[in-house]
Amino acid sequence: MMSDPMKEIIDYLRRLQAHNERTWFVDHKEEYVHCQGLFNSFVEQLITEIVKFDKSVAGNTAGSCTYRIYRDVRFSQDKSPYKTHLGAFICPGGKKSGFAGYYFHVSVGGEGYPDAHMLATGDYCFEPAVVKLLREDIANGEGDFDQVVKTASAFALDRDNALTRNPKGYAMDAPYGGYLRLKTYCLNKYVDDDFILDSHVLEHTAALFRTTQPFLEYINRAIAYARE
What we know:
Elements: H1 3-18, H2 22-27, H3 29-51, H4 62-65, E1 86-90, E2 101-106, E3 117-122, H5 128-140, H6 144-151, E4 156-157, H7 177-180, E5 186-191, H8 193-197, H9 201-227
Antiparallel strand pairs: 1-2, 2-3, 3-5, 4-5
Helix pairs in contact: 1-3, 3-9, 5-9, 6-9
């Protein structure tokens, strides 16, 4: 059902990658609007599926989850004006709420972020107070964080920028030190064209995100507590 729309989106993004300039984008603006509409339709359906197992994201729309295609090039060496991916961050209260969420990302089908298609649950930027609470919860949780990570066995924890030793206040042999050293609490899964173009991509994506719901609940509990 979704294979043709997703193919249109990927084909457009690949051509945008090859012609990442304002003149080409303006000349093909109608095609962009069409593909954004296809993506938004998928996102609306994905929200409906996720709400079936995670009521915390109820009330979201494509507009509260998706992003502009225009890149902020002010602090980047890459001055390409447009992103070559479309992403949706489905979280409690919408993408600007500060809560962690489920991220669906369609791109040109390359290696690594941002070119690879990917699914992710969690977030990349946390307030220091949230990281402190998460580490305390992990250290005192008797393995409960380890269990929620293992429940999402198809995903991998993002270990970029992790500390090389346990943070201050934790012994070097403290249990679950690998989790305590994380700065980012996010689960990632890169997928290929076959996954994205499959006619059951919606169902497969929702099923994978379902396995990460306990992880997301764990993270968002710490975020909510840090705000109290």
